[in-house]
Amino acid sequence: MEADRSEEFTAAGRQPAEQWGEDCHLGLHGPLLPCTFVRDPLPGGGAE
What we know:
With 48 residues, this protein is mainly alpha-helical. Helix content is 31%, strand content 0%. The longest helix is centred in the N-terminal third of the chain and has 15 residues, at 6-20. The chain is flat. The two termini are 31 Å apart.
């Protein structure tokens, strides 16, 4: 994402929360490290 569009990105994230009201809480987190998108397999080869 281009740095000069960060405000536009933040506003887009706020829009659904405003529409859904107090029952909704959305948070923007980042930047996230690539390792946060990888899941370790469960012991025994099972899946979640």
